[in-house]
Amino acid sequence: MRELTIALRATLVTLVLTGILYPLAVTGLGQTVMPAAANGSLLRDDRGQVVGSSLIGQPFTQPGYFWGRPSASGYDPMSSGGSNWGPSSAKLRQRILVERDRLAAEHPGAGPVPDELVTASASGLDPHISPATARWQAARVARARGVDLARVDTVLSGTIEGRELGFLGEPRVNVLVLNLALDRAFGRPLPPPPPITPADTPPAR
Amino acid sequence: MTAIGWLQILVFFAIIVAITRPLGVYLHRVFEGDRQPLPRILGPVERGLLRLSGANPKEEQTWGAYARSMLLLSLLGVLVTYFIQRMQGGLPWNPGQMKAVIPASAFNTAASFTTNTNWQGYAGESTMSHFTQMAGLAWHNFTSAAVGIGIALALARGLTRKQPGKHTLGNFWVDLVRGLVYVLIPISFAVALIFISQGVIQNLSGPLTVTTLEGGKQILALGPVASQEAIKQLGTNGGGFFNANSSHPFENPTALMNLLQLCLVFAIPAALTYTYGRMAKDQKQGWALLAAMSILFFAGVGASYAAESHGNSAVARAGISQPLGNMEGKEVRFGVSASALFATVTTDASCGAVNSMHDSMTPLGGLVPLVNIQLGEVVFGGVGAGLYGMLVMVLLSVFIAGLMVGRTPEYLGKKVEPREMKLAMLYVLIFPVLILGFAGWSLVAKYGLATSNNGGPHGLTEVLYAYSSAAGNNGSAFAGLGANVPWYNWTLGLVMLAGRFFMIIPALAIGGAMAGKKTVAPGPGTFPTNGVLFTLLLVAIIIIVGALTFFPALSLGPIVDHLVGQTGQVF
């Protein structure tokens, strides 16, 4: 009985200390010292409008923007996660083939489709693509925006992030940051995506 | 595989080796020293908490009393967390207006966090209120880790103390409070602030709706993440704030933070081997354990990294090149190397956090995490759990070595007798009974197969992985298996409880049985347990026990999956 009393009191004491006081102390300090990071590293456009978080990927479909990776959750932060399909999954095979053909059709002459654009990320919110995967899309973005490829390349090069400390992780480009930089340099792309005219249609594979 | 990929792995390992001694000395001072660190600041906190709990710090407990205190705290822990989840709708800090968690899921999660498993049948961002995350879940991250350290020290005291006739193993409440006050809370606090500085969020806000660049709507889930993330890694808990766990950019925003998270996972398990060497008054005893763990760690990470670098067969078959390797279920900022390393570390230690989706790994890449768990979570292992599991393996090795030379085995000068061996065998056998029993049952039952996300051998691996993860108190998943259904919620919950307590109790009983034994001076026939030969024998025993037990099941799962993958067949 005495042991049970001790256990009850210890339960209450540790819960208040580690479950309430500790997180509140971290919250208080974080909100005071680093409010921007503590609240989600939000990004704003030129008009001061919040357009998302620099850490969370967004879906991009317009040809004037660079595109991120497939997402099992459709970039919905309320249901993060991956596809959880193994290499022997028929559904995975299907998605890879469909995405490959779609992307190849929309990037005539760009060369083989990069693997990152047919594989879903772990979080479903991956904000990044590799520099090579971005470069692969640059011609399509330049064409849709009616600007020189070289100018798009310059903006792209300015947003490439290297490995941390020179050896950690992989080089990458934040898709949302890159697209915001494009808008800043060239203005917003025309909202309704220009329909592909028959002359632009790539030859069937 | 690339040189830079291996560099990341080697730098990580070098950091772990570098902190083993200083942190090990610190832990020894905290738990075994006469004067604890920072006596002016933390001393009053320790004494205050013990007084509030009503525990008598001077009182030494037998193994039975120690186990009883631990079980009572755990039982209350399950109940409190169950009811917090059930009543979260009426509790504070619920800006997302989460409703009560359904009973089966609430039981599963309460069992999961109490046992340091942190298996997540639920999706955090759409199920749990901020209060539940903090007081219901993060609280267990602290206490279950402190309990684990306590159990390891109790067993270590039983093995190393040289006080014939004295059968006590320390005081549970003192170990618990010291683990929190001197180790887990201060380190977590500092680490949480570092996490925030790098972008891990920490707030009490509800979901934030933003208009995306293309004009769509995106709802950002927010909350107190950094505080939970720090102890989740340090305490080898692994239960993420979000469904995507450490692959979520709000939990693990950069490769640098990824490295810090990994270091936190191995820090205490590695340091405890040094603490153990101090207690045994022979540092080589500790280094021998660390060496055995390190050999198994490198075997795992090498195999996993190689397999993942090889790429995903489904992508290769579409004629697409994979410059880094298999990127399905991985994040670009981590790449394949840091993902394979994370998968190995999180399953070596019974952490269970993930920064990539294990279900989407290649069959052989995914075999590594599964085998790591099935080796009994002794490769570094959970905080405390790794050391006590490893010490049981040590006794088994000493016993087998003794059989080979026909001599009564002894360890640290104490005879290892039938009672200890029976308890060690109980410890070793409970594990496969839970895993193979329930996985087998699920695989022949309609309700067991109903929620699998993958067909064929990969579907079998999902179920095998689920029960291995639960019994090993790991918590990672082949997450395609829909486990938030009554059958899996209840059985996995029970397996987690059994995998924790039916293994802790024999471990404590061994400590109790060894505690009061007479010490004899080593003779010419004594098998030294602090050298290379013993380390290799220990590694062999761990592999044989794990491999022989699970090899048939593994052949039906990942191994067939790999072979079938070569033919291009899909399911």
Plain-language structure description:
With 205 residues, chain A is mainly alpha-helical. Chain A folds into two domains: 1-39, no CATH class; 41-186, no CATH class. In chain A, 44% of the residues lie in helices and 7% in strands. In chain A, the strands form two sheets. Chain A has a three-stranded antiparallel sheet with strand order 3-5-4. In chain A, strands 1-2 form a two-stranded antiparallel ribbon. The longest helix of chain A is centred in the first third of the chain and has 32 residues, at 2-33. Chain A is extended. The N and C termini of chain A lie far apart (78 Å). By secondary structure, chain B is an all-alpha fold. Chain B has a domain at 386-567. Chain B has helices at 3-32, 42-53, 63-86, 103-114, 124-127, 130-160, 172-197, 226-234, 255-279, 283-310, 313-317, 335-348, 363-374, 385-405, 418-444, 446-449, 456-471, 486-515, 532-567, and strands at residues 208-211, 217-220, 410-411, 414-415. The relative contact order of chain B is 0.12. The mean pLDDT of chain B is 96. Classes of the chains: A mainly alpha (205), B mainly alpha (571).
